[in-house]
Input
Amino acid sequence: MAQRPQVFLNIIFTHPDYRRMGAGDLILQWGIAKAGEMDVEMWLDATVYGVPLYKKHGFVVVNENNLHPHTADPDEDWKRIEAELLPITMWQMWRPTGGNYQEGKTVRPWESQDESKTVLQT
Output
C-alpha cells in the first residue's frame, strides 16, 4: 500500500436495521466510480460482515489482521468491552484498477512482473 496512487475506502458501514437493502452497494459503487475516474487501484480494511460485499465488487483478500488490544491496568469498562468485542479480525482487501482481478494473471502491487510470470508457468 501507499507505493502508488490509490483510493483507500475508510469506514463504510450500514446500520444493522438497513443491511441487505443495497445501501452498502450504493456507497461502494460511488467509491469505485471515483477510483475509476482517477484510474487507480483501491484498498480497504473489511470486517467479517463486509468481506462478501467487497468480493462481489472485485476486491480480493490480501491479508488477515487479528487485533488484540491490551492495557497494563484494565478497568471495568475495558474488561467489558474486551469480553464483548475481542478478538477483532480485519481483512485487508485490494481491487486492481478497473476491478478485473484474475488469479494467476493479475500482477498484484507486491509482486514484480517477473514473479507473476513465474506463477503462471508453474
